[in-house]
Amino acid sequence: MRKLAFQYPNLISTYLLVVCLPIFSLFAQSNRPEPVFGFYQGGYYLTYLQGETNYTGGSLIQTEKNYQNGLQAQANLGVTPVKMIGTFPFPNGIPLTKDKVQAGDTLKVSMEYGLTDHIGFFISYSVVSIKSQGSNQIALADPKNPNGYTTYIEAVPIGHKIYRDRNYGMGLNYHFLYRNRFDPFVGLELSVLNFESKYRNGQQNNLFYPTDTHPGTGIGGRVTFGTNYFITPEFGLSIEVYGSRKILKSNAFSSESINLAGFQFGFIFNLEAMGKN
Fold it and tell me: Is 207 left (phi over 0), alpha (psi -120 to 50) or beta?
């Protein structure tokens, strides 16, 4: 009996442990904070996007178009002969390939902080480019010509990146929903930028008409509409469409403009949620 009496405390302790442990576990789980999806005050969001951009207007590309139209007119009127490549002859009556301004590439990385449950402040770095294809004008040394050279137009078009820039921006996003997997937003961004442009003005230089790359600086504005979808509190997908206007200056021109529209797709990371885990 005395031995059994000494075992009672151990039996009672074991019984309490078996009964209370599940209760304590349920209580701990009920007090654990629920994972937070979406945008909210105090969150830090890193976004990486890639996509395509298209030229929609502005004087910079129009200058290139005017140059190309001038070459077309010279060829059609017979003012300037047309060659295939170099001095190889080009069949008469075949029109030149028209200039094309094609889609370019775009990339954006941004860091956003939730000032409130609906407003976020962000800084960004983005790269935009535009591709072009068109004819080229060549000046060939010709001692028989009083000018000392003869000009002709190459029928085979050349292709190049007519414009490329690097933007350093900041702005605000307004998020329509908060603490939600689905996170639609609109944004406004202002930026300073460095750019390189193939700027052709038709002026002869050293017996050829160059397609020089001219560097410069500028300022830009951008309006964005997009949405994020959070697969987990820490990670999601992001889609953006945007329109932008940029005012440019370089050693080749005092002021030109370019307007762009683009689509981007990528990923978003909630760094604040990652820190909790």
Answer: left
Q: Supply φ then ψ for residue 11, to 5 degrees.
A: -65, -40
Vertex 256: Cα angle to 254 and 260 (nearest 5): 155
Burial class of residue 203 in the structure, from the number of CB atoms within 10 Å of its CB (0-12 exposed, 13-18 middle, 19+ buried)? exposed
CA dihedral 175, 177, 179, 181 (to 10 degrees): -100
The beta-carbon contacts of 22-28 under 8 Å, at least 24 apart in sequence, are none
Cα 172 from Cα 78, distance rounded (Å): 55
Tokens of 96: 């030149």
Half-sphere exposure of 27 (CA within 13 A, CB side): 5
CA proximity to 52, closest of 247, 212, 242: 242
Q: Strand, coil or helix: what is 36?
A: coil
Q: Do 134 and 161 touch, CB atoms closer than 8 A?
A: no
pLDDT digits (tens, 9 = 90+) for 222-268: 999 999 999 999 999 999 999 999 999 998 888 999 999 999 999 99
Residue with token string 């591709």? 131
Max distance between CA atoms of the chain, in angstroms, equals 132
3-class SS letters over 111-174: EEEECCCCEEEEEEEEEEEEEEEEEEEEEEECCCCCCCEEEEEEEEEEEEEEEEEEEEEEEEEE
